[in-house]
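2024-03-11 09:14:02 INFO worker-7 job=invfold-0412 stage=load source=structure_tokens
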């Protein structure tokens, strides 16, 4: 018998009443950037499909912070997250964080189901150039509403792209 612990397949471990179990879900955040009637997507290395920039939450991340970090890592763009929810309280005990415009539970392409939050994002500097980070994605590209209909992607991404192109705060 080896002293090496078995690899954890569920990255989030929860301990309650002295019992540790896997959380059962991955936590993922993505950002939708819309400019000039086009939505920015990345060609994901593992999925081999066009998806919004995004990825797993890391230790110390907030949900919105993870979305901004992932957009930067995959596209080279420094973005701000735009809340889709109101900030009702801001005091010494409760600081509002940007809220997502959509949340779902995804299964395809993940070893365990993924709770995914989708945020509106905006470039901090529109002159900043987009650069695909090859260790993360194959390519980064803008898509029009017409191109969204025929791109290689998940139907869920097409639906959210249609929604983003009509409802993003900068649309």
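2024-03-11 09:14:09 INFO worker-7 stage=emit residues=171
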């Amino acid at each position: 018998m080896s002293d090496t612990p078995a690899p954890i397949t569920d990255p989030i471990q929860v301990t309650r009443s002295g019992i540790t179990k896997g959380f059962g879900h991955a936590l993922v955040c993505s950002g939708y950037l819309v400019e000039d009637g086009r939505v920015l997507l990345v060609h994901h290395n593992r999925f081999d499909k066009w998806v919004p920039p995004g990825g797993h939450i890391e230790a110390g991340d907030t949900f919105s912070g993870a979305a901004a970090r992932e957009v930067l890592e995959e596209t080279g763009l420094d973005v701000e997250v735009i809340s889709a929810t109101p900030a009702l309280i801001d005091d010494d005990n409760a600081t509002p964080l940007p809220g997502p415009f959509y949340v779902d539970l995804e299964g395809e392409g993940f070893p365990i189901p993924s709770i995914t939050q989708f945020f509106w994002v905006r470039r901090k500097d529109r002159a900043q150039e987009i650069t695909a980070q090859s260790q993360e994605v194959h390519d980064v590209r803008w898509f029009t509403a017409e191109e969204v209909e025929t791109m290689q992607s998940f139907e869920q991404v097409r639906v959210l792209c249609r929604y983003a192109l009509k409802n993003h705060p900068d649309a």
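2024-03-11 09:14:09 INFO worker-7 stage=report msg="The longest helix spans residues 63-75."
2024-03-11 09:14:10 INFO worker-7 job finished
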